[in-house]
Write the structure tokens for this entry.
Amino acid sequence: MSFALSAQAVTVSDFGANPPTENVEVSQTISNGAYQWRNNEASRRDLGQSFLAETDFTLDSFSFQANGNVQVGASGAAFTVTIYENNNRDAVGTAISTQTGTYLTSASNPVASNWLLFDLAENVDVTAGNYYTIMLSWNVASVTDQDQVFQIDSTGTSYLPGRLWEYNGTTFTPMGYDMAFTVQAIPEPSTMAYGLGAGVLIVSLFLKRRRNR
């Protein structure tokens, strides 16, 4: 397990109406409710989701399903992704990675109920059998309408190894819900090598064909 605390740029993109399907290690895509991530003029609520790593893998990106468009205060705002590790699901544990980014803008990225992909600038190694919690927080406090609503499974029964967490700046609170989420690993080296090898083979055959002509 690598321990890395860093502040690098997380890239956020509107992935579209369907969740990612490639290199997905963990997912919960049932949505029948909504929950708000905020740090606005009313209150603070950092929001996140925990999951169980069933195998060793390197976390490359994750996605949450939006519920509504980007709010005015959240548009282009600075935010932080913090990833925690623990050996049980009942606490968030210890921070192993902290990375910052700039959120989508309401003018150019209307998200409605689309999936939002958060691509980490620094990948994070996770260990089979451990629990990981991905938390989102806004960097500037009490901004008017600085919030984003996400889709959740309000029954909390679709993904039992994890749960939705919220943080008010003082206390982490586990909720009886799960976010609609996916967790993606980096492509396996063998898959990448196969792709590169296939590309070299195609180029070689093309050049050979040209020489024969």
